[in-house]
Specification:
Blueprint: H1 2-5, E1 14-19, E2 27-34, E3 41-48, H2 51-66, H3 71-74, H4 78-89, H5 95-113, H6 123-135, H7 140-159
Helix pairs in contact: 4-7, 5-6, 5-7
């Protein structure tokens, strides 16, 4: 993953939107670039419902690339990002803490949020997930450990420059 993590400043991206009427999401937004190390042409595409949505997706990718993020990292799903960076996110923890954190990740965070791109996770999304974990009658310590691992993974995303603010830092959930 390290070779894909950073796009050197100045790498040129080419973008296009293709209309494919036979698809559920007929507008395919695509971005392409040449990896300066391998000299291979890489691409990333995503289907969107309308042209404005496709253009917005391309703009997000361009802005991420200007910040030094590869398109692959900028659109990585939370489950994939967490799996790739869990050791780094959990560094410094006591070994006895790892089991409850990893259980919270596997059984609550990934099913609830793992399908979302890291950049798509907002405070509201996290609030709703926490509400659902409480509604499922998980204990206070279970919810705390689940939030803690999510906070650590999202904090790593902040350090990697994928997001600017950690949306997983929630408060007031204990009263619920």
């Amino acid at each position: 993953m390290a070779e894909k993590a950073v796009v050197p400043v100045g790498v040129r991206l080419s973008t296009d939107i293709e209309y494919r009427p036979d698809r559920p999401h007929p507008y395919r937004a695509r971005v392409r670039w040449i990896d300066p190390v391998t000299k291979r042409r890489l691409s990333l595409s995503e289907g969107k419902a309308d042209e404005d949505e496709a253009q917005e997706w391309l703009q997000d990718i361009i802005e991420a690339a200007q910040a030094g993020l590869s398109p692959a990292l900028a659109t990585m799903k939370l489950a994939e990002y967490g799996d790739a960076n869990m050791e780094l996110a959990l560094r410094g923890l006591e070994p006895k803490t790892l089991d409850p954190y990893l259980a919270g990740w596997r059984t609550r965070v990934v099913p609830a949020l793992g399908h979302l791109a890291v950049r798509m996770i907002t405070n509201g999304v996290v609030d709703r997930a926490v509400q659902n974990w409480i509604a499922d009658e998980n204990s206070r310590s279970t919810v705390k450990n689940t939030i803690a691992v999510l906070v650590r993974v999202m904090e790593q995303a902040v350090r990697d420059g994928i997001i600017k603010v950690n949306p997983a830092r929630v408060s007031g959930w204990q009263k619920l």
